[in-house]
Amino acid sequence: MSSTQTIGKQRIITHRGLEPSNPNFFSESSFEAFQQQLTRGFGGIELDPNPTKDGIIVMHDATLKRLTDGRDERPVAGLTTEEITQIPLKNGRIPTFDEVMELIGNSDGAVSALHLKSRFQTPETLERIMDALEKHRGVFDKFFIFDVKADTARTLKGRFPTIRLAPSVSHPYDIKRFNEVVGGTLLSLEEALALRADGIIEGVWGDEWDLEDEGGSTKRLYTPEFFDAIHKAGMFAALVTPELHGTSPGLYGGESHPDSKDVKTLLERIKEIKIAGNDYFCTDYPEEVSKL
Question: Has this prediction a pTM greater than 0.90?
Answer without folding.
Answer: yes
